[in-house]
Amino acid sequence: MARLHEYEGKALLAERGLTIPKGAACSTPAEAKATAESLGGACVMKIQAWTTSRKAQGGVVFPESADEAGKDAERLLGMRIGQFPVEQVLVEERIAIKDELFVSMSINDAARAPVLLLSLAGGSGVEERADAVHQMPVDPETGVDLAEVRSVLAGSAIEAKFHDGLVDAIDGAVRMAREIEARSVEINPLVTTDDGRVVAADSRVTIDDYAVFRHPELGIDIARELDHPPTRLERIAYDIEQADHRGTFYFAKLPTTGAADERTIGFHGAGGGGSMMSMDAVVHAGFTPANFTDTSGNPSSAKVYAAARIILQQEGVVGYFGSGSGVASQEQHHSAYGVAKAFRELGLDIPAVIRLGGNSEDRAVRILEAACAGLPAEVVGFKKDDPPARCAERFKALVDANGGKVWTPRKRTIPAFVGSSEAIVFRIDLGDGWEGNVWIDNQNCDEKATEVVLANCGGVLEDHGDGLSFAVSNEELLKKDSEMIACEIECALAGYPVVYVDLPIPGIDDLEGEVC
Description:
The chain has 516 residues and is an alpha+beta fold. The protein contains 14 helices and 28 strands. The strands form 8 sheets. Strands 1, 8, 9, 10, 11, 12, 13 and 14 form an 8-stranded antiparallel sheet that branches.
């Protein structure tokens, strides 16, 4: 589920007629000071972060003046929730609250229907008052039964003059949920005030991932549930996933402390359950994953290559641990070629352990270890019969033997013949916004090299005695990344490095050495 910040959800509620506190989201102390001044000085300030118990974490404060608001904002904007910085604070008017209600519309997966939860005592600790929460079905077409809402309010101690406003607010929240295809809309609390208003004092909104593309007005970058605003690497990875739909690719940054003895690693899984077991094993061995990555569902070699490149754009990791399901139905040699290509291009100098359990695992391990044999650090492959704990033990031994060396992101190495007018080149297009070229060093393609290329190109090329030419149509060439990455690696292993698949990753290879 994709999330919205509090101020974003409140803006949507206001568009449906609900009253929200006066104020604004601020990104700098100066903005916060100016907003507080416009509100008369005394205000409420809340960090905009996808976390619960913000007040308990010191993320909600009550400045008494504009100057104090500026100082508080400076501190709050320096906070980190996990490893992720707070980037905005919401500065709002103070409200003289009379009554607090809890309102939540969410999808009940068991009932396969939306449901409204209404409590006449909102605010913190509502979970402990579950027996006092009213549950009401929500019709997808007509919404909640407003007569039932009125009946609940009629039996409460809330003054009757507020009932119409509360009913309208609840109806508006449910309508909003339907219009933006939300998984949940929560207002906690929905309040009445001493000056006679009904105000949405807080807001939490999540959107169905599969509906995000229909709502560009929401400005959601990544249609996935994260506990933090998307990082640059997460945006890059998501764009790759959206461009190339062959298999899946999920990348998420994980919280780390930054301590010198933390021993963070790049983690690359394949299949949900197996990845969780593998992560447990490597954590038990004393490491902290800097990320969670999953490439499964028979991904292309290019997609696995991109995943490895993105993982290795993280600074300070001491090793690369890849392990997922032991019975994966995907062809593991595609993954082996993709990972090996990334390791070779970057000159991997930290240890890597990759468990390639599943179809073609014997071939996959051979490819991985042979292709990485000349790297500065050892790369070891395992198979499905090797339990994750054994892989983690071997990984720990390799990291220890490497003396605690940490990884520094770097530019990839590209062969000299790339860009040559003498080379054969053809384009590959992997999806919207992601493309590259295959380069063949025609000058050094002697008879033996040509023989090796033809044996490993998957039928893409042919030779009629006058040099290499294409055996498939131009349209078919566009999706031949797996075949040509395999050809690149196998030609290099045979001693004829005459093929190179140039796959720039937007957001990484167009930057000058920037570290994420």
